[in-house]
Amino acid sequence: MPAAVPVPSRPSLHALPTLPDFPPLPPQRSGEVFEDFLFTRADGQWLERGAFIAERLALAPPFGAPASPALPMREDTLVRRYGAVALEHGVRPASQLGDATAQLRFTDVHLWCDTDWRLVSAQDTLLQRGVGVAPVAGTAPACAPWPGTDPAPDDPALLHTLNDHYVRAFREADIAWYDAHLAAEYVVVSSDGALHDRASALARFARPTFATTMRSFPVGNVQVRRLGPVALIHAENAYEMKDGRRGVSRYTDIWHQASGVGGRWRCIAAHITELAAAKATTP
């Protein structure tokens, strides 16, 4: 029988190790899973740790059968380290969908826990036909400096406020807000599976998408998790288009706080997946 995945002891999230070197990340989703792990599947469903492990074990080879080889690391897989937190962005085959040509764009977040890496968050989005694997580069539009101010870095509601402002900036096409809050290395996976760099994302945020095509774009089911200087925000937008179609997009935004007293938070990555069960339906 496949070995059960043990529940790891929870480290102090505000006193993470800052060792200069860590071992490489384990092969694609083959390592241990953190206790409050959350998976956003390619169909938009949220799976907590137990359901994710059960699904992973169900896909494992039968007892006595040779193990499937680990998926190779693609040359275009992007791995970034922020202290004891590692972000992994890449593309892998969507073999479970029964289509040999289908591919998934993934964002995995790993946490170093004393002796090994633990998977904290994972999200998949299916690459739509015609969407390339290579990142989409763009040209950022010019904008005036953002005139606002954020709450103090030690405000317990700060990350919720930043999340609210992120969504409001989308509704208002407030490119100055995004320019002030997206880190230089920011990347975003859009709902079609494309990976956009910061400049391309800014060009998209500058478009009046909400004003021209949408009737509502609320935010709900917000979950905020702190991993020392990194924060994960999971939430959803149950939107309605002006033509009456409705859908739900689920996202993970990843924020990083600069070192030092009073360090500001910047968004370093975002990943969006449409909830298939609610995708662009007409009431």
Topology (elements, then pairings):
Layout lengths: L31 E9 L5 E3 H10 L19 E5 L2 E9 L9 E11 L2 E11 L31 H15 L2 H7 E8 L5 E3 H8 L3 H5 E3 L3 E8 L2 E12 L4 E12 L7 E10 L9
Parallel strand pairs: 1-6, 7-13
Antiparallel strand pairs: 1-2, 3-4, 4-5, 5-6, 7-8, 9-11, 10-11, 11-12, 12-13
Defining traits:
single chain; 283 residues; alpha+beta; Nuclear Transport Factor 2, Chain: A; 2 domains; seven-stranded mixed β-sheet; six-stranded mixed β-sheet; 5 helices; 13 strands; 16% helix; disordered N terminus
**Backbone shape:** globular
Report the span from N to C terminus.
46 Å
Low-confidence stretches: 1-20, 63-73
- Helical region count? 5
Which CATH architecture of the largest domain would you pick?
Answer: Roll
How many structural domains in the coordinates? Answer: 2
- Which fold name fills CATH's third level, the topology of the largest domain? Nuclear Transport Factor 2, Chain: A
Main sheet record: 7 strands, mixed
Q: What's the β-strand tally?
A: 13
Beta-strand residue fraction: 35-45%
Helicity level, as a percent range? 10-25%
CATH class of the largest domain: Alpha Beta
Rg computed from alpha carbons, rounded to a whole number of angstroms:
19 Å
